[in-house]
Structure formats: structure tokens, C-alpha cells
Design goal:
Blueprint: H1 7-25, E1 31-34, E2 38-41, H2 42-58, E3 63-66, E4 70-72, E5 79-86, H3 88-92, E6 99-105, E7 111-118, E8 123-128, E9 133-135, E10 138-139, E11 152-155, H4 167-174, E12 176-178, H5 183-191, E13 195-200, H6 205-217, E14 221-223, E15 247-250, H7 255-262
Parallel strand pairs: 3-5, 11-12, 11-13
Antiparallel strand pairs: 1-2, 3-4, 5-6, 6-7, 7-8, 8-9, 9-10, 13-15, 14-15
Helix pairs in contact: 1-2, 5-6
Length: 280
């Protein structure tokens, strides 16, 4: 087994990248658009450049998969997967629900380390495989209490499917739906027991590498919409830059039943059709 880097050094690097974002957040934010709808800021690019340099310095032989720069192969079997700014739309509007995320995948392409830093909120969550999940140094875990009408379930901000999938209506009918604009923040609420599950049809690899290991180490479960494991990855990194990975997370007690309630027919049609479904 390939040895993992020092977790505290990864936390420090992630927080320093978050500081870059925070400094820009308090000044004028330069906003652009990539693809059809995706918002990007110069802060995204600056943060990712910093992460690429620092993480490669920490593990020179590891690969690197970034939202902005794509895939850079490595030789060690380990691969950094980073989202330098999750919640870019929130960030561009000065809504404080955004984060910097760093994940590490092992030689089997399974997340083994994750750090998510929330600079404005002054919180950081992290986990390493087999070591538990932590919030600001204190152990944290998902809730396994029974679901009730006020239970909060996270949903994505945009859905581009026709017909519109029914899971959003089902959540709103039975529970309390929240769309907070950042899967990082949904993860934070889930692993601190405040959100009970979340479903997103449009995530990409950089969105879920860090959250997956943190959720699992907090006692939660992660799967695709059909309940099948997302990891180990079945596709090559080069093919995952723009490929959607439908994502569900919850707790082991209520999560499986919640997933069946939300998606009784499994994955909605059109998820993998780039014309019918935009991943913006």
C-alpha cells in the first residue's frame, strides 16, 4: 500500500488556498462564464494554481485532477482531486456558502483522504481512511435518527431534464428541501448531523472526491442514484473531466429507504445525454 501524505500538511495547504479565495472574496470579484452556464472567477484559477504547486511539492509523483486545469498524470498511483472553489455562484454573489476542497485517491481510484475548508465560516472538516471524520479537530458523525417532516434533505441548484424528475417534489412534500449551492456545504451539514441526506444528478469527480471519504468516515453512505458504489472509478481520469456522476449520500439507517423513496424508478433518463442534460 502506498503511504499517504501527512494529513495536517494537507489541511494547512487547503486552508492557505482558502485564504487566497477569502482575500479575493472581500474585494472586487472578476467573474466569467465557461461552457454554457458555469461561472468561473480568477480566484478559482489562482487557488488551483496554488494547489497544483503545493500538492505536487508534497507528493511529487502523484497525479493531479483539477476542475480548472484538468488531469495531469502521475507515477505513484495516487491522484489529487481538487475543487479549488466549490460554490462559485455563491462566491460571485458574496454568499458565504463556498469552500475549497482537496481529495486524494489511492491506486485503486478510491478516495482515501479529504479536506474541505470554509474560510468565511471559519470551519474545516477532514478525514483519512480508517481515521474517522473531524470538524475543527473534534470528531463528527452523521445522524441516524428516524426521518421526520422537518428533516433537511439537500438538492441540487439546477435540474436540466424534461420531464422534470420527481425527487425534488417528493422531498418538498415529505421533508424539508434545501438547495444551498455547494455540495461541500451539504457535506458539512450531513457529517455534523444537521442534513439527513442529499441527492445531486450533476456532480463531477472534483465535486465528490473529498466529500466521499469524509462522509464515509463520519459513518455515512455514498452511492449513485441506483444505490451502486461510485468508487472505485470505472472510467479513466481523462474521461471524467466533463462526465456527470449522479450522487447520493445519507446515513446507513435511513439512507437506503430515502433513496428508494426519492428515485423509485432509479436514475432518471437523460442524465448522460449532453443535449438533454447540461451539467452547468
Amino acid at each position: 500500500m502506498i503511504p499517504l501524505p501527512n494529513l495536517h500538511k494537507v489541511i494547512e495547504i487547503t486552508r492557505r488556498a482558502g485564504k487566497i479565495l477569502h482575500e479575493r472574496f472581500e474585494t472586487d470579484i472578476e467573474v466569467g462564464v465557461k461552457g454554457t452556464e458555469e461561472i468561473v472567477t480568477e480566484a478559482d484559477r489562482e487557488s488551483e494554481r496554488f494547489l497544483l504547486e503545493e500538492l505536487r511539492s508534497l507528493l511529487p509523483e502523484a497525479g493531479f485532477f483539477g476542475e480548472e486545469t484538468g488531469f495531469h498524470p502521475g507515477d505513484s498511483g495516487l491522484t489529487w482531486v481538487v475543487d479549488p472553489l466549490d460554490g462559485t455562484h455563491n462566491y460571485s454573489l458574496r454568499i458565504p456558502l463556498w469552500a475549497c476542497m482537496v481529495g486524494l485517491l489511492d491506486e485503486n481510484r478510491v478516495p482515501v483522504l479529504g479536506v474541505i475548508d470554509f474560510p468565511v465560516l471559519k470551519h474545516t472538516i477532514w478525514a483519512e481512511r480508517g481515521g474517522g471524520a473531524f470538524r475543527d479537530g473534534e470528531p463528527t458523525s452523521v445522524s441516524t435518527d428516524p426521518l421526520i417532516g422537518t428533516s433537511v434533505i439537500g438538492i441540487q441548484s439546477k435540474v436540466r431534464l424534461d420531464p422534470f424528475p420527481g425527487h425534488v417534489q417528493r422531498i418538498a412534500f415529505r421533508y424539508s428541501a434545501r438547495s444551498l449551492g455547494a455540495i461541500a456545504y451539504h457535506t458539512y451539514l450531513l457529517v455534523t448531523g444537521r442534513m439527513r441526506g442529499c441527492a445531486d444528478l450533476k456532480v463531477k469527480l472534483h465535486d465528490i472526491a473529498a466529500p466521499t471519504v469524509i462522509i464515509r468516515e463520519a459513518g455515512g453512505i455514498v452511492s449513485d442514484i441506483d444505490g451502486s458504489p461510485i468508487f472505485p472509478l470505472s472510467r479513466e481520469f481523462e474521461d471524467l473531466v466533463d462526465y456527470p456522476l449522479p450522487f447520493f449520500a445519507g446515513d446507513p439507517r435511513t439512507g437506503p429507504e430515502l433513496l428508494k423513496y426519492l428515485f423509485p424508478d432509479g436514475t432518471p433518463e437523460g442524465i448522460y445525454d449532453p443535449v438533454a442534460y447540461q451539467t452547468g
